[in-house]
Structure formats: structure tokens, C-alpha cells
Design goal:
The complex is a heterodimer of chains A (254) and B (130). With 254 residues, chain A is α/β, with parallel strands linked by helices. Chain A folds into two domains: 4-130, HPT domain (Four Helix Bundle (Hemerythrin (Met), subunit A)), CATH 1.20.120.160; 138-253, Rossmann fold (3-Layer(aba) Sandwich), CATH 3.40.50. Chain A is built from nine helices and five strands, in the order H-H-H-H-H-E-H-E-H-E-H-E-E-H. Chain A has helices at 4-36, 41-64, 68-83, 92-113, 120-130, 147-156, 170-179, 196-205, 242-253, and strands spanning 138-143, 162-167, 184-188, 214-219, 234-237. Chain A is elongated and about 65 Å long. Chain B is α/β, with parallel strands linked by helices. Helices cover 41% and strands 18% of the residues of chain B. Chain B contains five helices and five strands; from the N terminus they run βαβαβαβαβα. Chain B has a five-stranded parallel β-sheet, sandwiched between helices. In chain B, helix 1 (14-27) links the parallel strand 1 (6-10) and strand 2 (31-35). The longest helix of chain B has 15 residues, at 115-129. Chain B is globular, with a radius of gyration of 13 Å. The chains are: A alpha/beta (254), B alpha/beta (130). At the A-B interface, helix 1 and helix 2 of A face helix 1 of B.
Chain lengths: 254, 130
């Protein structure tokens, strides 16, 4: 077996070779991103899956090579792609955000390859500034089994200046809530892996970690949630007054 | 108890192949054969018959779980443990992968200096149970 010094030297060499290949890989991803707004909805779906697959692969491999910053950028860009409705709505702004992620990976790789000094906190700040932290818009997470209600909430709250994030999965919603500071979480009673009530129970149990997040539970039936650990901040019944009630909750409590 | 010496790794990602091969051969002293795809592994693995198979989950054409089913049909590999290697580390995803009947899971990213020891520990646990 090889000595520790020899292994470290070999690992460093492999890392540089890998970063060179990452530069090529992200250039390919960049070309695919630039195609997204020019192709049909169906083709966009296939390209989107290809981009996600490549980013996921770089994330895992870069992590194994100890290149954690590249891994983190890929992770953030994957999250971003999961949050926007790529197939139906991939705007110029979305394209620009994705290209910024790619540029940051290229910048990092090229500097490491050329042995240039990198300022880690500056890199972290650059990463944070790309998405979700650059403005003071409200952030609203919607956990709904289908996109139709997500679209309704977006349309209802169109006059408010906010970013919307979507998931159909209760566990994913909880994970995001623990990591991202949302202003509101609109939660359907019937979502996968964790039901709406279970999700709110989880959120209530870590209230000190979720800042000023306000939960809105949505259901077709009236529920008695008094003295319940899963009591939401607001309850919204799916009826003719739903849109108006949602607007007034957000207006009064933003 | 069978000692872990020969490992077959099935992964389409060249950079992972190179790193894992270095980690398992130079750091841990195993003998590693790499296949780029499930199809290649299925046609050539009988020439190797390893003590352990490391199988990537996300691959083009045939994905890991599909390759796993086909590998389990090969009589000579009946008692060879198969571990999935995956970057999907969510609890639900791991549960789904284990439900296929695979012997264990190795997470990506991995630490190349610790991968060999990690795999040996899992292997000894599995062989002890067989």
C-alpha cells in the first residue's frame, strides 16, 4: 500500500484533473441551459432532466474529491431547478440565475487549476447572492399534491411582491423550512410522506428555528384543531371565499 | 468466512472510477475491476467472480436496481454481496433501495482515505449474517 504522502500527492493530482473535466462538463451544461428557452415544452423536460442528472453527478463526484464548494454550488442549483416550474415557465431570469451558478463553478475551477488565491467568504457571498437572498421579497412555500392549486395561489397573490416555491412532498417541505427562511407556508392537508397536519406538527415543534414563518393549512373540510399540536397559524377552507381569505391573511400578516 | 479481496465496481462516471479504484487498491489493498455500464458488467463479470460488487444507482441505459436484478440471476454470483453506491442519501430513498434486496448502501460522496475500511466493515457484517 502507498504511503500517506504519496497518496496525498496523487489525490491532489487527480483533483486537478477532475476540475479540468468539470470545466468541460459545466460548459456542456451551459449550452444545454441556453437551449431551454428555445425548445418545445416536451424537449425542455428532457433537457431539464439531463441538466439535473449532470449537476447531481458533479455534486457527488466533487464531494468525493473534497471539492466541497463545487458540490455546494451544484446542490444550490439543483434546489433552484426543483423549485421553478421549468417545463411550463423557464424565463430569461431563470436562465440568468442558472448561468450565474455555472460561471461560479468555472471561476472556482479555473482559479484552483491556476493556483490562484481564492477568498472563501467572498465565494460564499457570491453563491448566496445568486438566488433567493438578493432581495427582500416575501418567500412563500406551497406544499400541495398537484400544481393546479400552486398556480391558483400564485395568481391570487400576484399583486404581492413574492417568490413562490413548490413541493408535493411533506418531508421535502420540512427540510426546506429548516434551511430557508420563508414568510408563509401554504400547506395542503393531503400531501405525501408527511400529511399537512404532521408537517405543521413538526414545524410547531421547532418554532424557534423557523423565524417568523406563518403556516396556513388548506383543506376541503372544516377541522377542529384547538388544543392540537398541529394547529396552524391560519386555516383556509377550499371554498368560494378561499382567494379572498388568502389575500387578507397575507396582507395583514406579511 | 470469505475474506474480501476482489471487488467489482460498476459506475459510468470516469472520475469516480479513478478515485474509488485508487482508494480501494492503493489505500486498502483490494483488487478492483471496473465496468462502465450494467451491460458490460453482465456480459463480462463471469470472468471475474468477485467477493463484492459495488453498483452505482444512477447510470444511463440500465440503472443500478435493474442491473442488480440481472446480477442476482447469475448463479455464480448467488452469494456475492452487492452494495449500491449512491448520492441519494434521503431516508426514503435509502429505504427504497434497501427494499430491492441489496445487501447494503455506500454513500457518495465518500472519503477516499476511509472508503476501503468502510466497505470492509459493511462486508464483514453482511458475510457474518449469511
Amino acid at each position: 500500500m502507498a504511503s500517506k504522502e504519496k497518496l496525498d500527492e496523487e489525490l491532489e493530482k487527480l483533483k486537478l484533473e477532475y476540475l479540468t473535466s468539470v470545466e468541460e462538463k459545466v460548459s456542456d451544461i451551459e449550452s444545454t441551459i441556453l437551449k431551454l428557452r428555445k425548445v418545445s415544452q416536451r424537449d425542455r423536460g428532457a433537457l431539464f432532466r439531463e441538466i439535473l442528472r449532470e449537476l447531481h453527478s458533479i455534486k457527488g463526484t466533487a464531494g468525493s474529491y473534497g471539492i466541497h464548494f463545487v458540490s455546494k454550488v451544484c446542490h444550490n442549483s439543483e434546489d433552484f431547478l426543483q423549485e421553478v416550474d421549468i417545463e411550463n415557465d423557464f424565463s430569461e431570469e431563470h436562465e440568468s440565475i442558472m448561468l450565474k451558478f455555472i460561471d461560479l463553478i468555472k471561476f472556482y475551477a479555473s482559479n484552483v487549476i491556476n493556483n490562484s488565491e481564492l477568498n472563501e467568504s467572498e465565494l460564499e457571498n457570491n453563491l448566496k447572492s445568486i438566488y433567493g437572498h438578493q432581495d427582500n421579497k416575501m418567500k412563500i412555500l406551497v406544499a400541495e399534491p398537484t400544481r393546479s392549486f400552486f398556480n391558483i395561489y400564485q395568481a391570487t397573490l400576484a399583486d404581492f411582491d413574492c417568490h413562490f416555491y413548490y413541493t408535493a412532498n411533506g418531508l421535502t417541505a420540512f427540510e426546506r423550512i429548516l434551511n430557508i427562511q420563508y414568510d408563509f407556508a401554504i400547506i395542503s392537508k393531503t400531501i405525501d410522506t408527511l400529511s399537512g397536519l404532521e408537517l405543521i406538527g413538526c414545524i410547531n415543534s421547532v418554532k424557534s428555528r423557523v423565524g417568523n414563518l406563518k403556516t396556513i393549512l388548506v383543506s376541503s373540510n372544516k377541522l377542529n384543531l384547538e388544543n392540537n399540536n398541529s394547529k396552524p397559524d391560519f386555516f383556509l377552507e377550499k371554498n368560494k371565499d378561499m382567494a379572498e381569505s388568502l389575500m387578507s391573511i397575507v396582507k395583514e400578516h406579511k | 468466512m470469505s475474506e474480501l479481496k476482489k471487488i467489482v465496481m460498476i459506475d459510468d462516471e470516469k472520475a469516480i472510477q479513478i478515485l474509488a479504484k485508487m482508494a480501494l487498491e492503493k489505500v486498502a489493498g483490494f483488487e478492483v475491476t471496473v465496468f462502465d455500464s450494467g451491460a458490460q458488467a453482465l456480459s463480462e463479470i463471469k470472468n471475474v467472480i468477485p467477493d463484492l460488487i459495488l453498483l452505482d444507482v444512477i447510470m444511463p441505459e440500465m440503472e443500478g436496481p435493474e442491473v442488480f436484478v440481472e446480477l442476482r440471476k447469475i448463479e455464480e454470483l448467488n452469494k456475492v454481496p452487492i452494495f449500491f453506491m449512491t448520492g441519494k442519501n434521503g431516508e426514503d430513498e435509502i429505504k427504497l433501495l434497501l427494499a430491492t434486496g441489496v445487501n447494503d448502501i455506500v454513500n457518495k460522496p465518500f472519503d477516499p482515505l476511509k472508503l476501503g475500511a468502510q466497505i470492509k466493515e459493511k462486508y464483514d457484517g453482511v458475510i457474518g449474517d449469511l
